[in-house]
Amino acid sequence: MAATQAELSKTAGKPIHCRAAVARKAGEPLVIEEVIVAPPKACEVRIKIVCTSLCHSDVTFWKLKDFPGCFPRILGHEAFGIVESVGENVQDLKEGDSVIPIFLPDCTECIDCTSKKSNSCSQFQFKVSPWMLRDGTSRFTTVDGETLYHFLSVSSFAEYTVVDIANVTKIDPRVPPNRACLFSCGVSTEVRISSSLILCKMSSGVGAALKTANVEQGSTVVIFGLGGIGLAVAEGARICGASRIIGVDINTDKFEIGKQFGVTDFVDSNSYGDKPISQVINEMTNGGADYCFECVGMGTLVEEAYACCRKGWGKTIVVGVDKPGATLTFKSSDILHLGKTIMGSLFGGLKPKSDIPLLVKRYLDKELELDKFVTHEVSFQHINTAFDLLVEGKSLRCVIWMDK
C-alpha cells in the first residue's frame, strides 16, 4: 500500500506529478486533475497520502464564497501518509515514517509549546491561510502553471502534499491507515468556522473530555449536539467513567447512534415548546450537570449550557464555534455568585506531538474505540460521493482511499 524506500528515493528533490481533487468553485463538485507538487523546502516534508477522511470543515470551506474561502484550492486535513522526502533542517522525520498531518501547529520550542498549560503555538499562530506556514507561497500548481491554494496547512485531497514539520506528528505504524487518519482531527471535534478559528472532530472531542474538562468518574455530562464532535465528546466521557451522559439534539435519529458512544439519556430539544432546555436539564439532574459541552457552534446554546451547569463546580466547555462576530451574554452577578467555569477547547486542548501518541496508545490498548466513527469508505475517484453522504447526514466519517 505504501511506497517502498526505493520508490521514495527516486522522487526526492524532484517535482511530482499526481492526482488531486481540486475545489474550483464554491459548492461545486471537486475536479480530479493532474497537479504538480514541488519538493519540500527547509523545515518541510512531502507526504504520500495513503488515505484521508472528510470533515465538516472541508464542507464548510468548500461552500464558502468569501475569504477565508478561496479557489482553486486543495481541501482535506484529516489524513495518514508516509514521508516521501524531507527538506533541509528536518531532524525528527525521515523518509518512510508513518505520519499524520495536523492543522494545529506544534513547534515544540516556544513558551506555549513547551508548557503543559497551552496548545496554542506562539511561533506559528493558527490561522486559516491559503499558503505554506513559513514563506507564504504554495507548493501546488496545475500542469499549466496555475497556483493552487493550500488548506489548513495540510491539503490532503491529493496523492502527495507538502506540510511544515510543525504540522506533522509521527504515528505508530501498527494503527491501520483508515483509523490513523482520524487522529489527525476526526477523533477531535467537528468543525465550525470563524474568521480566525476552526475546530476539528475526534481528537478535539475526545480531548475536550479527557484533557480540557478532565471529566471525573461518576460525573454527569451534557452534550449539546450529537454530530461528530458531540459523539467524540461522549466517547471521551465514557472513557473517563462518567455515569450519566445526556445528549441534546434536534435529530432523533442521532439517539440510537449515541448509545454506541456511551450516551445514556436523550433530550429532543424540539419537543419542549417554549420551555428552555436548560430548565429541562436542571430538572433531570437535580440542579445541573457537572460538565456541559456545546458542540454545535451557536451562542444561544452556549448560554443554555452554562445555565444548566451545576453551581459551585460545574464546567461549560465550548467546542463548536459560532459565526464571526457572535457574542455571548451573561449576568455579571451570575459569574460572581454561582462559581461556574466556562472555557474554550481548541483541538481538545491536545498538544499534537505529545498527546496524540497517548490517544494512539489508548486505541492500541482497545480502550478508545474508533471503528464506530467510520461509517463509509470510498476510493479517491468517488470523493464527491463522500461529500454527498456527509451533506445529506448519512455519514459520520467517510474514509477516502487514494489507491483503492
TrEMBL record:
One Gene Ontology cellular component: cytosol
Domain of life: Eukaryota
Alphabetic keyword roster: Metal-binding, NAD, Oxidoreductase, Zinc
Manganese among keywords: no
GO biological process: formaldehyde catabolic process
Domain Alcohol dehydrogenase-like C-terminal: 228-360
Keyword Ribonucleoprotein: no
Ranges of residues in domain Alcohol dehydrogenase-like N-terminal: 44-172
Alphabetized InterPro entries for the sequence: ADH-like_C, ADH-like_N, ADH_Zn_CS, GroES-like_sf, NAD(P)-bd_dom_sf
Cofactor entry: Zn(2+)
Residue runs in coiled coils: none
One term of GO molecular function: alcohol dehydrogenase (NAD+) activity
Protein family (similarity comment): Belongs to the zinc-containing alcohol dehydrogenase family. Class-III subfamily.
Self-association and partners: Homodimer.
Name this protein carries in UniProt: Enoyl reductase (ER) domain-containing protein
Originating species: Solanum lycopersicum (Tomato)
